[in-house]
Design brief:
5 helices; 3-stranded antiparallel beta sheet; alpha+beta; elongated; 4-stranded antiparallel beta sheet
Length: about 180
């Protein structure tokens, strides 16, 4: 089967079973999925072991408790926030809410719990698993629509460091100029 060529490598055709390698012309996906850590699945296994003892000891009274670890497992696997070029998708336990970038007025971080998206109509939508510490991920995936205060603080700090270095360089130059004037007198 003949291979198609392009200036930067191979191009796939409808007859080729393999997709082409990514190149500089292929945009990278900016979609970010923020979810509960998969390490918490280990906690579901431990919870199953914990409820299995009473369920085996007295099945008539405690066998219903064997459902609890599986409910927690389903919750861990379902709850997430997806941030992409089209907007934010908040997937909670029993509902999914899609928010376009035009409908988003801002993000609020309450004292406890997950972030809340404030919409232009004044309502709020909880963003599962998004905390203030995940804000850099959120800012990167939003393509600059959400600002990253950490990056702004780093930029301000580096600008301050540069201005301090410039002032110390000027002061050193002035001191050496004054010393050379004193030495010539």
């Amino acid at each position: 089967m003949p291979r198609l060529q392009c200036e930067d490598g191979e191009v796939s055709s409808s007859q080729q079973p393999v997709p082409p390698r990514s190149s500089s012309h292929t945009p990278e996906s900016a979609t970010r999925v923020i979810r509960i850590s998969r390490l918490s699945l280990l906690a579901c296994g431990i919870l199953l072991l914990a409820v299995a003892s009473p369920a085996m000891a007295w099945p008539a009274a405690f066998s219903w408790m064997l459902v609890i670890p599986f409910l927690v497992l389903a919750w861990i696997l379902r709850v997430r926030t997806v941030v992409g070029p089209d907007g934010i998708t908040a997937r909670a336990t029993f509902s999914t809410t899609r928010i376009g970038w035009g409908a988003l007025a801002g993000i609020r971080f309450p004292k406890r719990g997950w972030a809340r998206a404030t919409l232009t109509d004044g309502s709020e939508v909880p963003l599962p698993v998004v905390t203030f510490g995940r804000l850099p991920e959120l800012a990167e995936a939003s393509g600059g629509r959400i600002t990253d205060p950490y990056a702004a603080a780093d930029a301000a700090r580096s600008a301050e460091d540069r201005s301090t270095e410039d002032r110390s360089t000027e002061a050193t130059a002035e001191d050496s100029a004054a010393e050379s004037d004193d030495a010539s007198k």
